[in-house]
TrEMBL record:
Residues 142-165 are annotated as: Disordered. This is GTP-binding protein of the rab, variant 2. Gene3D superfamilies: P-loop containing nucleotide triphosphate hydrolases. Keywords: GTP-binding, Nucleotide-binding. It comes from Phytophthora oleae. SMART domains: RAB (SM00175), RAS (SM00173), RHO (SM00174). Residues 149-165 have a biased composition (Polar residues). It comes from the Eukaryota. One of its GO terms (molecular function) is GTP binding. InterPro entries: P-loop_NTPase, Rab, Small_GTP-bd, Small_GTPase. The gene is YPT1_3.
């Protein structure tokens, strides 16, 4: 049985606001495309991750963006992340190329390394900050259904994960 997705909850605090992120890792594999479109519906934010050592992976970002734009709400926050930045010798997609692409779409961009945790926390903080900005712009009555911000009153967060089929 193949892993289709992994679900995890993450609580992020920015200033006096707490954002609870529900993260669905859908593996980004082409064979899961019909399944992943269901995850876009109702999503407040979507992080698209490509492998900086694979031009093909970066080329597929356009395909994923088309899917996101087709199925996600108009105000859904997007973030482009280039992973494996620790492997600079085999880099196929330059930072400048990816940054220019993200800028042309008005999408935040950063590179990360899951191996050494470089900028991984920053990716979640960037998404949380984008969600806060959107929430403050549209106000409580018009906020997306999945967005819930709370004042910081206690620390901690649930980091339970489960596999989905």
């Amino acid at each position: 049985m193949s892993r289709v997705c992994f679900q995890r909850f993450r609580t992020v605090k920015i200033d006096n606001k707490t954002v609870k992120l529900q993260i669905w890792d859908t593996a980004g594999q082409e064979r899961f495309r019909t399944i992943t479109s269901a995850y876009y519906r109702g999503a407040d934010g979507i992080i698209m991750v490509y492998d900086v050592t694979s031009q093909e992976s970066f080329d597929h970002v356009n395909d994923w963006l088309n899917e996101v734009n087709r199925y996600a709400s108009e105000g859904t926050c997007k973030l482009l992340v280039g992973n494996k930045s620790d492997i600079s010798d085999n880099k196929a997609v330059s930072y400048e190329t990816a940054k220019a692409f993200a800028d042309s779409l008005a999408i935040p961009f950063l590179e990360t390394s899951a191996k050494n945790a470089q900028n991984v926390e920053e990716a979640f903080l960037t998404m949380a900050s984008e969600l806060i900005t959107i929430r403050e712009m549209v106000g409580d009555s018009n906020r997306p259904a999945g967005t819930k911000l709370t004042e910081n009153t206690k620390s901690g967060g649930n980091s339970n994960g489960c596999s989905c089929n």
